[in-house]
Amino acid sequence: MPACEYKSDCHTLVQITDSHLFASPDESLLGLPTGESLKAVVELVRAEQQNVDLILATGDVSQDASVAAYRRFVELTGPIGAPMRWLPGNHDDARTQLACSAGQDWMQAVTDLPGWRVLFLDSAVPGRVHGYLAPEQLDLLEQALGSAGERHVLVCLHHHPVPTGSTWLDAIGLRNADEFFAVLDRFAGVRAVLWGHIHQEVDRVRKGVRLLASPSTCIQFAPASSDFALDTQLPGYRWLRLYPDGRIETAVSRLQQLDYTIDYSGSGY
């Protein structure tokens, strides 16, 4: 995978998503200890990436929305040695996540890097699985894009704003995607939209904007499935290189082995 030849050439970002951690390190999700799989993915990041500028944790950090789970995420991702931003997913509790961020900038909605702006939107709806961007989030999007100046922009959220081809997943995506894209389409500086939630890889282009989704650090969902189904691909993460000219290089990297037996007969999570 290409690296920045010089630090000023580009920014290296790492997306760590849908870790589904529990308060207890002994808990597992469909047979997979989520803390152990996150730890293995972090080790993979450390082996493959140098000088990471920012960790993007795009939701479902925790499965049980516990303080202990959020603290474990911070501890387990700490060895990457980079600043972190996280946003809530449908399994998270935004208030708990915010409380765990006290004194830190982890829930900062706008992060500026030289030549780039990274924007984090909260698409979680308390008590619901689907996503929705409330009016204040759409206002935030418009204001952040309008004030970006010459910066290129990467927009991050949890829920998918485009269909995936999986019937059950598309029923729990972003419900007001049309409003989201109506704002996005007015600003030429947007280079990519990045999300989690679907536990699988997506890389496509819409009106010149890269649309990206990434594997979970735990279980993976089977693409193009009518009902809940797991994929046999292993956990992973996405790396991104953001260049001064707005170009993005990105790919997914996965574990090569997993020392746990996943329950592929599971009907939900």
Automatic annotation (TrEMBL):
Return the Gene3D superfamilies for the record. 3.60.21.10
Q: Name one Pfam family in it.
A: Metallophos
Lineage: superkingdom: Bacteria
Q: Which residues form the Calcineurin-like phosphoesterase domain?
A: 12-200
Classification via CDD domains: MPP_GpdQ
Is the keyword Nucleotide-binding in the record? no
| InterPro entries given in the database record | Calcineurin-like_PHP, CNP_phosphodiesterase-III, GpdQ/CpdA-like, Metallo-depent_PP-like
Tell me which UniProt keywords the record has, alphabetically.
Hydrolase, Iron, Metal-binding
Give GO MF terms, alphabetically. cyclic-nucleotide phosphodiesterase activity; metal ion binding
Query: NCBIfam families given for it?
Result: PRK11148.1
Family, per the entry?
Belongs to the cyclic nucleotide phosphodiesterase class-III family.
Query: What is the protein name for this chain?
Result: Icc protein
Organism of origin is Thiopseudomonas denitrificans
